[in-house]
Amino acid sequence: MAVAVPERRTSLHGQWSSRFAFILAVSGSAIGLGNIWKFPYIAGVNGGGAFVLVYLLCVFMVGLPIMMAEILIGRRGRRNPIATMALLGEEEGGSRHWGLIGVAGVITGFLILSYYSVIAGWALAYIFESASGAFVEVDSAGVDEIFSGLSGSWIATGFWHTLFMVMTTVVVSRGVERGLERAVRVLMPALVVLLLMLLGYSIIAGDFAQGLRFMFEPKFSELTRAGALAALGHAFFTLSVGMGAVMAYGAYLPAGASIARTSVAVICADTGIAIVAGLVIFPIVFANGLDPAAGPGLIFQTLPLAFGQMPGGIIVAVLFFLLLTFAAWTSAISLMEPAVAWLIETAKLRRTSAAGLVGVTTWVLGFLSVGSFNVLANFRLFGRTLFDNLDFLTSNIMLPLGGLAIVFFAGWVMSRNSSADELDPAAGPGYRAWCFAARYIAPVAVVLIFLNAVGLF
Ligand code: PHE
Fold this sequence. Notes:
Largest sheet: none
Number of helices: 18
Strand content: under 5%
Bound molecules: phenylalanine
CATH class: Mainly Alpha
Radius of gyration: 21 Å
Order of helices and strands: HHHHHHHHHHHHHHHHHH
Distance between the termini: 36 Å
Helix content: over 70%
Number of strands: 0
CATH architecture: Up-down Bundle
Oligomer: single chain
Shape: globular
């Protein structure tokens, strides 16, 4: 039976100035290391083409309906993700226990941030490395040496991780201010322009044909069960869905703004950037005889070769790593925000204390990932380093499970009155398509890929 539509709630923290501001904020969260660092590296490890195809299918068939579900739940509840899930759980499903989905999301964000910050630290270090001229005319052995000098030293990697955590904590403790919104407005387009310049370089100087073939020629024989799971997990990771970050931002979305159009815009921008990043990296990899499956260091071991050869390379390199750091920063903030909002509301901490507490805990935990590239490199659990385990657990298991729970709630537990009220009061064909995707396509796809990964299908 349909529940009465509650009166429109408002958020304590105000609203985005416009739908565009919201698109910027969600894109800021979505576009980050996932697109430029992680996508090329895991596409490389998983053999390219077929992996990329599964990833794209997951983004549009699973990620899109889940992103819409997160925004609609966030806007309906207008609180932090835990309180929103508990509140709507009570209203729609008769139980506040739905709030546990929010709790799981907060923990997931905290775990992701601990290793995210380590990689972001490398990007930060590379700003200074580029500025020093270290990449000028460097060859691949030289690039390797620079990268292992950084990643092989826990002190160096730990130092940059520390700096990045401080930057993130400071912004979150001040509240995500207008300054950030304004900066994102300029820096995101700048990142796109720079990536397009690099694309020009790799078309001219790289082995573009082989890069294209690697990314788009699906060789299904090379796609393993683990690869399909990684593609699913990456769809969640890159879109920031499955942990409540988008839900938290959705709480500040003005009532009239179209959730469908907003989500499509964010997803197209995110996917476009990942594809361009891949088309920049792989031609350089092949032209220089490098290994596409080199792992987490891939962009740090390939891009400097390009910067070292191009005119004005120092400036381009500095700008690139600056923008990459910025993209990582806006994502890190959204990873931290749910935990901080929760502490403020439940433990009644001040924002600075809450951010400080989460910041310090994440920083300490981050040293497990710092060590994975040096002193703990030989310490393996399930055959993986601690860094790989954290990444695997969060991206491939926790985000998809969180997303599954969220989309199940939106599709099956919420009344159609409520979801249609947020998405499309006329319940037109677009709404019906979302319902179908949210009820059947997304959950079935997630479950099938999980069953496949454990060998049951
Ligand atoms: N989407 C971000 C990226 O691609 C990472 C992220 C994941 C941010 C989950 C928030 C939540 O870099």
